Amino acid sequence: MSSPGLSPWSLRVARLEPWFTVGLVLAATVGLAYHCRYLAVPIVDDAAISLAYSQTLFAGHGLRITPFSQPVEGFSNPLWTLLLGLSRPLGRDPVSYTHVLGIIFGVLALPAFSYWGPAARGRDLRVEDALGPLVAAMNPTYAYWISSGMETGLEAFLLAISGLFVLKELRTGRSAHAGWALGLLCLTRPEGVLFAGASAVLWVVSRGLERRWPGRQEWRIGAWLVALVGGWLVVRWSLFADLLPNTYYAKSTMDFQVGQYLETFALTYGPLCKLAVVCAVLGLSGGRDEVRRTALTCLFVGCGVFFVWRAKGDWMREWRFIAPLVPLLGVAVATGISGLREWSARIANRGAVWPARTLRLLAVALVLIPGNRVARESLERSPQVKAAPELPYTFIAGLAEQVRATTRQLGQLRPLVAYPDLGGLAMVMRNAEIIDLAGLADYAVARHRLRLGAMEDYLVSEGPPILMDLHGPSGYFVNLQKLMAEFHPIGGSFFMLNGLSATEDPRCPEGKATTLALGLEALIQRFEQEIREDQAPRALKRWRCVTAYKPRKELPDRAARKRLAELADARGDTLLREGKREPALRQYSLATLLDDGNAHRRRKTETLRAQLFPAEPP
């Protein structure tokens, strides 16, 4: 049946429109891939953090930044970290694998975003459905971050298919794919929980307006979310003794000028943002299905912006947190065009042909006139973005090679080092235990940011590390007098432990040669004696000494360490009951280190340390 107000030529165009749209989306995906190649973004150092965790996990050492570091959730993207680890069994170079995988997901997100309209309405593709992919393909912020090794591409892909499933399943009342898609989104980024909540709000309101009670479909979606998100929370508590990632605590006291962060994005991409707002208003005035698509788009963008505000911005440039939302700005424009189409169709059905055609021309003008400026300004930024990349992993890795050479000259098999630039260091110094002075991958540093006395006590009593780098986020450590008295500068922001040389280590209680001469049985007996005699500070230094220099076979095995840890923990409990809190703290610290940094022991240790060294008044 022909539609009123449409000529035979228009009907032929309508039949070809889905194929033309497929061509546009395909062009956008190819264009995005070329855009990524042009930018040639290096893997950023923060991406190497997840990569280092993944390599440790797939090497059989658990979720640790290096095999010898303590188990701390220094990442906020568990699904991405898991996927990066697959480079090991697949036999791929982990760095290039990380780079390519992010681009693949970022490119795959584009066709998924284009199908939001058909999913919401049950219709064929229309030309405006390609606007989301086209906007993303031309945008250097989006292309930059999906190429950077970060989880941006995966987040955008899961955001796209989550919205697609929510809209389709709301319309059809069948299937529950939205559950696993939203669940995986929650495991990709912390703000995934906000996106899942926004989807739930849209679902509840839609079903409420339809006067439909929750049924099997809703229970299945909920079951997926509970299984995936709840399952990860169980794993998180078991491994890391917390329900929030350590990064939450590390960044809780930081302020990255979020107002300026958002304002500069809005100014840089002003025409795109304004066009998206105008078109979203038009989309909200459409039919029920179009309103759903527009509402979900606005809710997702709102959740992303709220997360940026709550996180107080970001320390990396080019709006990393906003990048996955860029395609949604194009989707918002598409909703406005679809809204104008619906008005045009309704008017044409009433026989008003010329007003209907006027609305269709307005829709075309709304895209072409400001759209030309959006495309031009986006692409003109690409050379600027290419010329100023974020801190590359390779730069930090180059510095880490020098650190590794220094530790080898000192004869250390498993050095203890304290640095803030974690990714490149962890990828190069796989044999080291790393104290992350930025706090992302260190439980105590993250928790004691407002308790400098506790921070200082932790670094001195449980170490000290042999090398420190105090710059940027760790620059304030130079004000810790007791800590700095143990170190001397060796150039720039680098410091070395006093008295450390190839032949001596101040952490060895009887001197390096004598301490390392102890056999395995004698070493275990010495630890047991020092625990029973409340000489835990001496035992802590002994542990740092022998683990730095002795091969694994000459150290107590897992069973012996576990037994010694339980003995030290029990002794600490006794001392605490007697009111001897500091000696108890030393026993707890020793128990934690002997038990491979067990997170639950660490939590117990740092809780007591916080009581002994409370936050100072501002």
Can you walk me through this structure?
This is FHA domain-containing protein. Residues 426-483 form the FHA domain. The protein has helices at 8-39, 45-61, 78-85, 87-90, 94-114, 116-121, 131-138, 140-146, 152-172, 177-186, 192-209, 216-240, 246-251, 258-268, 270-284, 288-310, 326-349, 353-387, 393-409, 422-428, 443-447, 452-461, 481-484, 512-517, 520-532, 536-549, 558-577, 581-594, 599-612, and strands at residues 416-419, 433-436, 467-469, 487-491, 494-497. It has 618 residues and is mainly alpha-helical. The protein has 3 domains: 21-387, no CATH class; 393-442 and 468-497, no CATH class; 512-612, Serine Threonine Protein Phosphatase 5, Tetratricopeptide repeat (Alpha Horseshoe), CATH 1.25.40. Helix 20 (422-428) links the parallel strand 1 and strand 2. Helix 5 (94-114) packs parallel to helix 9, helix 10 (177-186) runs parallel beside helix 12 (216-240) and helix 28 (581-594) runs antiparallel to helix 29.
